[in-house]
Amino acid sequence: MSDITSRIQTYLVRADLDRFLVETPVIAKYVRGFVDTLGELPTYIAPDTLYTYQVPELSEDGACSVLDALAPTPYDLTSILGGRNQHNERKLLLLNQVVEHATQLTGADWLGIYQARTTRTGQRVLVKLAYRGRPSRAEFPLNAEFAKGSTNSTVGLEGSARVIDDVAAYQAEGGGFYVCDDQVQSEACLPLFDEAGVIIGIIDAEAQPKNFFNAERIAVLSALAMVTPALLP
Asked: How confident is the model over 110-155, as pLDDT tens digits?
């Protein structure tokens, strides 16, 4: 068994995606594709484009986003990443490159990469480092209470992937789903692990049609989950 095959299968088992083990050769193909895209980086992107992005207004208690209402001040990654420097900028550039490639491959309406980090106030959160789609929440608290209403936080705590084919049905059954776009009906949220199997972040993808995340699209996202840990700042 090749090293890449072994690593993919280990990831799928850890992420509770055993049912996609048959897709291992397809995932390996997409891993190679993602690696190839990293050799095609743009020569320059303005730092503000990498570090800052618009976010929705949050409710008074911070529990949910106010749909179609943007906060007056963009979110800035500078603080939680420990400053602006060449290392962080290159990592953010790489993450944006693979997010763009994954979005093109899957056709998802929204796709983003989050890293588990600690804020200056000592709170553990998932912070969004790169994404494509409409503005969405920047930080998801990593605690059991918030996870009751958030797929992202649940996966970030448990390390078990969620593939939701019908958001409305999932919520009706008691599943927690954080709404940034009320048109979304499908979601795939996959964990990121370090070499020791520790959860270090997540990948989240959403789409308006139901039953959107078929085996091929999950193969793309699994490949993204394989290459992303080495790109995190």
From this structure: 999 999 999 999 999 999 999 999 999 999 999 999 998 899 999 9
More confident residue, 59 or 37: 37
The whole model's pTM is what? 0.92
Span 211-227, pLDDT tens digits: 999 999 999 999 999 99
Q: Determine the Cα–Cα distance for residues 30 and 165; give it in Å rounded to an integer.
A: 23
Instruction: Determine phi and psi for 196, rounding to 5 degrees.
Output: -90, 0
Instruction: Give me the residue spans of the domains in the chain.
Output: 3-231
CATH topology (fold) of 3-231: Beta-Lactamase (3.30.450)
> What would the DSSP string read from start to end of the chain?
--HHHHHHHHHHHHTT-GGGGGGHHHHHHHHHHHHHHTTS--S---HHHHHEE--EEEPTTSSSEEEEEE-SS-EETTTTTTS--HHHHHHHHHHHHHHHHHHHHH--SEEEEEEEEE-TTS-EEEEEEEEESS---SEEE-SHHHHTT-HHHHHHHH---EEES-HHHHHHTT-----S-TT--EEEEEEEE-TT--EEEEEEEEESSTT---HHHHHHHHHHHHHGGGG--
Using a 10 angstrom Cβ sphere, with 0-12 exposed, 13-18 middle and 19 or more buried, the burial of residue 179 is middle
